[in-house]
Design brief:
It is built from 1 helix and no strands. It is an all-alpha fold. The chain is elongated, with a radius of gyration of 34 Å.
Length: about 100
């Protein structure tokens, strides 16, 4: 067993590089899009759309959470004014 499992194994006839799980890595060639001038604006538009969707979802969840918290606080009676209690000092005993 080699000292480093990410280095190529000299006894192996398969792919020289393996993933951390020991599965041989496939050689995949990545080709750039044919029209790179239109690919970048499409990607930017997709990222903006995803950002806007996530923003709307986050705002919606925030609104629902705040309405729920306010409803629970009101149901527990925590929004009412506290009852005023008259403070009385103990009277000293006269003998």
């Amino acid at each position: 067993m080699p000292m480093n499992r990410f280095l190529p194994d000299s006894n192996s006839n398969s792919s020289p590089y393996k993933t951390p799980l020991g599965v041989p890595q496939q050689n995949k060639t990545v080709h750039p899009p044919e029209d790179t001038a239109t690919a970048a604006p499409k990607t930017v538009r997709k990222v903006k759309n995803i950002y806007i969707i996530l923003l709307v979802i986050g705002l919606g969840l925030g609104i629902l959470t705040s309405v729920g918290v306010v409803a629970v606080i009101e149901q527990l009676g925590l929004t009412e004014a506290p009852v005023e209690v008259e403070k009385t000092l103990p009277q000293p005993e006269v003998n």
